[in-house]
Each structure stands twice: as C-alpha cells, then as structure tokens.
Design brief:
This protein is α+β, with helices and mostly antiparallel strands. It has 16 helices and 17 strands. The strands form 5 sheets. Strands 3-2-1-6-7-15 form a 6-stranded mixed beta sheet, with helices on both faces. Strands 8, 9, 10, 11 and 14 form a 5-stranded mixed beta sheet that branches. A hairpin with a 3-residue loop joins β1 and β2. α4 crosses α14 and α10 crosses α12. It is globular. The two termini are about 30 Å apart.
C-alpha cells in the first residue's frame, strides 16, 4: 500500500473517536471498522453509580465523566497510552460548545495527546461514498438530524433536527407494551404490566433491536387511526433473567416505529424534516440532494426502514404542502460501505489517514496559546474570519 507506507512507518496511527449519546465508536485511522463500539456510560469515581457521559450537570461534571470514560477506552479497549498520539474527533455540527471545549481540555491537559482534528460527521460520511453532495439523514438515539451537504460544504441554514430517534421509539415501545397488558382483565396481566413498566432501558432497547420492525405505509396508517390491520403479526416470547419470559405482542412490535412517521398539525415527522430541508435549499440543489440521500445512525438499521421512508416521501410529494414547491419524482438512497451505525466513524478514519491530520489539526502548543478555553470552530464567524495584521489569512 504505497499510499499509506510513508504515513504508517513514520507516524503512529491516529486514534478516531466518535462520541455518541448512547454509543461511542473508537478505533484507529486507516482501518475499515472501529475496534470497539461501547455504551457512552461510565461508573462515576465520585458516586460509584453508572452514568451516561452526555447526562452531565455542569462543565466540571462533564470533565470528570470524560476522564473516566476515555481512560477505559484507551487502557482497556485498545490498550495503549494516548500520550503524544494524534486524535481525530468526529463531531456533529450541532454538538454543544461545552462538550467540544471540555473534550479538548481532557485530551490535551489530562491525556497529553499530540494534536486533535475535529471533523464534522455529516461531511465525512460522504467521504466513504466518494461523493461531495448529499442529504445526510442521521437518526441516532436522542434526535434525528438532516443536514444537506453541497459540493463539500454543509448548508447549515437548512438543517433540521427533532427528537424523533431511538429514544422516542423505545419510549413508544415501553408505553404500548404496558398499555397492552393493562387492557387485559386479569390478575396476571396486571402483574405483567408492572413488570413491563419496570424493565430497564437496556432491555427495552434489546427488545426493540431483536423483535421490532418498520411496517408498510398502508398498515402504519391503520395504527395511526387506532385500528388493527389484518393479518396480525405473531407475538414473540422474550426471555428475562433466564427464568422469566415476557410476551411482546405483534402490534407492539409493528407499531413502535410509527412515532417517526406520524404527522400532526405541526408536521414533525421524519419525512417532513427531509422535505423541509430540500425546500429550504436553493432550486439548483434540490434534485442532487434528493438523488443522494445518505442514511446513518443506529435507528436506520431496523428492517423495512428505508422502504418505508421512501414510500412516505413519495406520498408527501403529492400533498398540497409540497406538490407545488417540489418538482421531484424520485429519491435515491446510497448503500454505505459498512453498517450505518459507524459510517461517520469510518469517514473520520479516512480523514485521519491523510495529510489533513497534520495540516488542519489543533496541536497541544496551539491549544496552550489560545487566549480562551474555547476551541476554534470552523462554522463560527468568531474564528472563521480574515486577519489583516500580516496580510489576508483565514483563522481556522
């Protein structure tokens, strides 16, 4: 591999970190998949309780959680010292500034990494497909984000975000499962409804992944109208603790993903978000975006998701809201070179194996010389401006 020979022989492989709300992807640049995909949670060294990394109370609390969490990633999952290593951080363009700044402080001051390269997740996703224009639909755990990217530039004025993702699906699944047992008039059903209500989030997530699926549009409409479609979907017996079982009814398995497609007066469904992002884009951008839709995130892996989304988009195009605004007839979805839940990490691994990691990274010396603890942000006008002290130059 002459493309990587010089890099791998003279430099240590860069570390690629994709910190998500539910799962974190961690590995090395230039590799085809992450070394580990672990839950973004850690046992707090102060309280001894298991906590989500992104469920922090303040900046100091986030610092302590990140130190404990990254220590486990470095010394347990990949077994290396991060000192003098280059790190590629895959971040969302909507990532809170406090997370970016605190993560940089932890990496530079606590773990003493050599440099840090921040890459926008919605942009590097397209690098895995060798395209520079696409509509990136990221359906993760806490929210769904739609970010158009045109000619390698994220169009931030048209982005869409709503809490329609894995967490909403799990809440709907748990709610409908409890309601299903409450409707049964028996003492056993009351006990099972209480048992379902007390199921931990990890079990609800496993039930969602193993048993649920996205149904067809015609059957989904019947669930919106609180009707029972025929033929019915068979129930599934799910084991709990090895000794007890819980029955997951067919309608619960089939209807839990409808929270992503249901439309109310505010039009907050996932298909509406996609069409709204295209409508807000320039006219010459709309067709290329519709023909280059890229789905990423763990929630899009569900069986039937892509076919249902395409059917909903075509149906909405005939509605009065979009019929006169969009003259688009088809949507084309890309098949990424891997599983959708780590494609953003893969894009960061590609960027980390190029010269960009030496040209565009923030070094430890550069971080120490910053006038404030805020890390420069490429999409912020505060940092992305022209300086005339030594001639025109772009501050990155």
């Amino acid at each position: 591999m002459p493309m990587f020979d010089g890099y791998l022989l003279t430099e240590k492989q860069a570390i690629v970190l994709d910190l998500g709300a539910r799962y974190t992807k961690f590995g090395f640049a230039g590799e085809a998949c992450p070394r580990c995909i672990v839950r973004s949670e850690v046992k707090s060294s102060k309280t001894g309780t298991l906590r989500q990394v992104m469920s922090f109370t303040d900046k100091e609390d986030l610092y302590a959680l990140l130190v404990d969490f990254l220590h486990i990633l470095f010394f347990k999952h990949v077994q290396l010292s991060p000192k003098e290593r280059r790190v590629v951080v895959v971040e969302s363009v909507l990532c809170p500034t406090v997370v970016r700044d605190t993560l940089a402080k932890v990496l530079f001051q606590h773990f003493e990494v050599c440099s840090m390269l921040l890459v926008p997740s919605h942009l590097v996703v397209l690098a895995t497909l060798a395209i520079d224009t696409g509509l990136v639909v990221d359906v993760g755990h806490s929210e769904a984000q739609v970010v158009p990217v045109y000619e390698g530039v994220p169009v931030l004025r048209t982005w869409q975000a709503q809490p329609l993702a894995g967490a909403a699906i799990e809440q709907r699944l748990k709610k409908t499962l409890v309601e299903w047992y409450e409707k049964q008039d028996s003492g056993e059903s009351i006990r099972k409804s209480q048992q379902a209500n007390n199921l931990p989030d990890s079990v609800i997530e496993d039930i969602k992944v193993r048993t649920s699926f996205v149904t067809k549009q015609e059957r989904g409409v019947l669930y919106w109208e609180e009707k029972q479609p025929e033929p019915s979907v068979p129930d599934v017996l799910y084991p709990i603790d090895g000794d007890h079982n819980i029955t997951v009814p067919g309608p619960v398995r089939e209807a839990c993903h409808e929270v992503l497609f249901e439309r109310d007066n505010d039009q907050l469904s996932l298909p509406n978000m996609i069409l709204d992002a295209i409508v807000k884009s320039s006219i010459d951008m709309r067709r290329p975006l519709a023909e280059n839709v890229v789905l990423v995130g763990g929630s899009v892996i569900a069986a039937g998701f892509k076919a249902r989304l395409q059917a909903e988009l075509k149906l909405l195009l005939q509605s009065p809201e979009y019929k006169d605004k969009l003259k688009i007839t088809t949507f084309k979805f890309h098949n990424p070179p891997g599983v959708e839940n780590y494609i953003a990490w893969l894009g960061g691994a590609l960027y980390g194996a190029t010269d960009m990691i030496t040209m565009r990274s923030l070094t430890r010396e550069g971080y120490s010389s910053l006038s404030s603890s805020s890390v420069p942000d490429w999409c912020s006008l505060l940092h992305n401006r022209l300086s005339h002290q030594n001639g025109p130059s772009l501050v990155i």
